[in-house]
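Troubleshooting log. The previous run stalled partway through. Resubmitting the same two chains, unchanged.
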Amino acid sequence: MPDLIIASVMTMMTAATPLMFAATGELVCERSGVLNLGVEGMMLIGAVFGFATAAVTGNAPLGLLMAGVAGLLASLIFAALTLSLLSNQVATGLALTIFGTGLSALVGFDYVGETIERITAIHLPVLSDLPVVGRLLFGHDPLVYLSLGLLAGVTWFLSHSRWGMILRAVGDSDVSAHAIGYPVVLIRYAAVAFGGMMAGLGGGYLSLVYTPLWAENMAAGRGWIALALVVFANWRPERVLFGAILFGGITILQLNAQAAGVGIPAAFMSMLPYIATIVVLVLISRDAIKIRLNAPACLGRPFRAER
Amino acid sequence: MKYLVKLVVVTFAAVLSLGAISTASADKLKVGFIYIGPPGDHGWTYAHDQGRLTVEDQLGDRVETTFVEGVPEGPDAERAIAKLAETGHKLIFTTSFGYMEPTLKVAKRFPDVKFEHATGYKQADNVATYSARFYEGRYVQGQIAAKISKSGIIGYIASFPIPEVVRGINAFMLGAQSINSDMKVKVVWAYTWFDPPKEADAAKVLMDQGADIITQHTDSTAAIQAAADRGIKAFGQASDMIHFAPKTQLTAIIDEWGPYYVARTQAVLDGTWTSGDTWHGMGPGMVVMAPFTNMPESVRQMAIETTAALTSGKLHAFTGPIYNQAGELVVAAGEVAPDFPMLATMNFYVQGVDDKLPE
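Second attempt completed without errors. Output:
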């Protein structure tokens, strides 16, 4: 039984990691006041370029780097359209997802059925062999730690660093931030780019670690879950960790319950994360102050600098 | 939202592929294929596409083929099938169970177009059905698994609770029980044909719960790769997946659609096509086993013998006595389960399956 629990927790962490990458990035993006609905598309672009790089060079870490770069470049298209040309963020984000789905299928066409050397779990002498905690703390693949590290970094950045506070100011009142003299558009570019890189890494995790293969549309809606996750976390980075484990974990729990013969309908279990999101939304909507405190006030609004 | 995206992509795919063929010469027979996944899944759709290529190969000067990939089961399917019919395709293969109603609907509107629906059970004057007796392969797999498993637990990744899948689980169980009556099969329903990360999740969960052999009725190579990652043996699905897991695959059930597709296309060319139901197994070569690998020689010999017996018809996978989960005798000793209605509409588990069949 303890073995089963440890094994399940390990599997849950791997399910949570791609969500954590994408949601952390989108959270920073939304905190700066930009709503990028292209997460799914950027994940797919990251996944395919990461996989293609790994397949061609045989170097999976390089592939992961490329995944981040590809996601970043894709997000810059979005940034240029919405921030410089002031197009509608919702429509542009949707377009980015559709574009990413198509582009990744096109690029990936020749890589379907290729195999690569995946990035494997780390094994530290002594530490990883400790009973129970050894595997739980020191037995994951390196990207699990990277995603946790980035999340911790973002948490600190947003709450304790000067630029983090400026970023939040830009998201909460672009006009005031501009009046004080901060480069609103530039900061938003940076936030969108970070979001793109993180979504790309999340996609790269899927194609390089999770299932070392490329398959069309392999993100299978995880980008949308990451978007829901940001709302679920009420735009607070530390809650993303909890949410990602919950959202990722519920899939695993659902499958576990089935394999164990527990008679809960699988479709119902798959629904739970979304119900949780709705419940959280309803709860926070009841308290207007809380929303005002957390949701970036300028989310989704285009900004044109006044002279 | 995801649905919207899929819809747009599918529509694009349909428009593009149809645009491409509309310029072609008129005297060739146009044959259309509707695929549930991408031909590059190296599983189910890949096998159908190999069949399509065989048609091109053997009748290439008289036919031209078109395929529309990634068509969801539902209203989109109806649109995609109708589009093929509207653009002059006279023979259309719809290659997934969920296309059954859409195919019948479109067929009513195009009486001069012949339709072939895979794995369904409803025919019409211009709708034939065809399927392969994959369950024969499942029986062999069950025997191999029972011989090799140390934990006595097999992990089975199922897709949707439809007769074809339930039949596979039961045949697997019966095969396993013929070797060891205590074997357990744990079933996880993925509710998808193709979602690699989810298939991998299902495999991992089953291994977490002690399964030491993985078999799947979903279409991608993710599950067998997840098994390879943990050094556990597994079976390939619908096509030979040995390339993805050279040290893991025990065997795979390979669907050979080519000869059937060629014969049916030829029948349309000759004007001899009639509706009907084709359900071929190992005998006519529609179901083929990939080489038996990564197992002891004695197990390999047993697998070869069982395959030969199933091929010659000496052995039937569903030979009584067979009990259902409630312990009721459903097939008497020495008798063989009838194709219709029992096998064709199978909606119960045989005794020993460690799962409750979803409604």
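Takeaways: Chain B has two domains: 2-132, 135-256+286-354. The first helix of chain B runs from residue 2 to 21.
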